[in-house]
Amino acid sequence: xxxxxxxxxxxxxxxxxxxxxxxxxxxxxxxxxxxxxxxxxxxxxxxxxxxxxxxxxxxxxxxxxxxxxxxxxxxxxxxxxxxxxxxxxxxxxxxxxxxxxxxxxxxxxxxxxxxxxxxxxxxxxxxxxxxxxxxxxxxxxxxxxxxxxxxxxxxxxxxxxxxxxxxxxxxxxxxxxxxxxxxxxxxxxxxxxxxxxx
Length: 198
Ligand code: FES
Fold this sequence. Notes:
Strand order of the largest sheet: 2-1-5-3-4
Order of helices and strands: HHHEEHEHHEE
Bound molecules: FE2/S2 (inorganic) cluster
Protein name: 2Fe-2S ferredoxin-type domain-containing protein
Family: Belongs to the adrenodoxin/putidaredoxin family.
Strand content: 5-15%
Largest sheet: 5 strands, mixed
Cofactor: [2Fe-2S] cluster
CATH topology of the largest domain: Ubiquitin-like (UB roll)
Distance between the termini: 100 Å
Structural class: alpha+beta
Number of domains: 2
InterPro entries: 2Fe-2S_ferredoxin-like_sf, 2Fe-2S_ferredoxin-type, Adrenodoxin-like, Adrenodoxin_Fe-S_BS, Beta-grasp_dom_sf
Helix content: 25-40%
Number of strands: 5
GO molecular function, one term: metal ion binding
């Protein structure tokens, strides 16, 4: 602030003290100037926030979300595309027939489980048990399948009610040549796994 302005502000007060000398007036003005020009004391700084409060809120992409997708049904088979259906018939223990439209590449264990047919599949299709035993009813279809390998033959030896056309359901994969396949589920299975013999 300029000196004339300061004097204008100070004069009303000085009129209350008429006996002051010129020297005291100058001192008073200097003190007034120094007082008004002095910087304000610094405001106390805010205490630092705790790390917990300073943690940034996660962005939408970082937030965890719940999935609303449909749960995958057991068996993990997809419905066949129109015009690409293959048919397989399961004959259950009571003799009832279940004709199913399936996709190429699905195996009999997955198909049976996806359709709630009674096939245990204790080893999950890793050719280490005999609970997916099926009997192919037509020799013609049996001959169209690749030969069972040693692992499958070993497990078939443990199967209850073994027959010439027995196979493990998890090892039979549907393909166009097997369209119309019919398989029978044995009246019972033995839940013996290869790990039982180690
Ligand atoms: S499910 Fe175990 S061998 Fe097929």
